[in-house]
Amino acid sequence: MSRVDRDPPETPIVEGAEPRLVGALLARALHDRRWADCEVALIPGGKSNLTYRVWSDAGEVILRRPPLGHVLPTAHDMGREYRVLSALRGTAVPVPRTLLLGSDDSELGVQFYVMERTVGHICRDDLPPGYAETPAERAAIGEALVEVLATLHAIDPESVGLREFGRPEGFMERQVRRWSGQWERSKTKELPVLDDLRDALSSSVPAAAQTSIVHGDYRLDNTMLHPTTPGEIVAVLDWELSTLGDPLTDLATLLAYWSEDDDDEVLIRARLCPPVTAAPGFPTRAEVIQRYGELTGLDVSGIGWYLAFAFFKLAIICQGIVARVAGGAMLGPGFDLPNGIVEASISAGRRHLDLSETT
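Given the sequence above, the corresponding structure tokens read:
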């Protein structure tokens, strides 16, 4: 899916952000009674938090809230998203302007936040017709993705008020433990191959070369591209997993969602989304790695371990989506996952780890 000024459906989904409740809280918090008479529509396609477009005579905003019902511990933290977006405003990393952080004793009954609405393309399934039609334009998108990531990792956390945003010491060890715990809380069957991958990752954690602000889920469809100029990113979105830690985790996440036209069967089966980046002009994974290394000066030779961890995490995220959908926590379309994606992600992770150990 791509989106520019997307029209709401004929019957918009408003569950979780009912207009009468949202209108009342926005009118009070933003000091404008025109918000009381607002309309709301769920923006489909996200697989974690729920995102709604809200509009009235006062303007348009975006509201983000957790899924309905029970969520896993430490997941879907609206306060973290709000904090990092607010901190990065005014830096070279493009983010929407935050407007309001709502508490769980508000009308919605959960913590949520409101931000400005940014117009552009969110490309999940393909590029929009007539957009980035040439290899040069697609190469510019790839370059922009790497440049923005390198820019994020170059920001001094203390300079933007994020010195206490995370605990860098032992970051990767905790990440392996954290996602192992998420697996235990969401799994529907035993998967010894995942346990084996977890154990192998735990016993070979690399030392971080740098501490940075990390996005936690950086990929093409968590950015918004300029509506008419390929190669310009107007917003980086979905910061719920952000923290302070090892920047190579972000690079590996980008690569785990990246596709090439000559991917083998293992990588094809592990694709969570259509292979947009396999189109001519997009850089290869090797070119992404090289360019990131050039921009940051970081040693990227050990990226194989991080790729293995990225696919390990991706397998667990997919299992969490399955669990939330089964429990009725998510709304709208867009939650169909490829058959066997959990097992396929584990296989891809194991392969990357094996290759890293032989190089």
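The chain has two domains: 19-116, 135-358. Try to locate this feature in the token string yourself.
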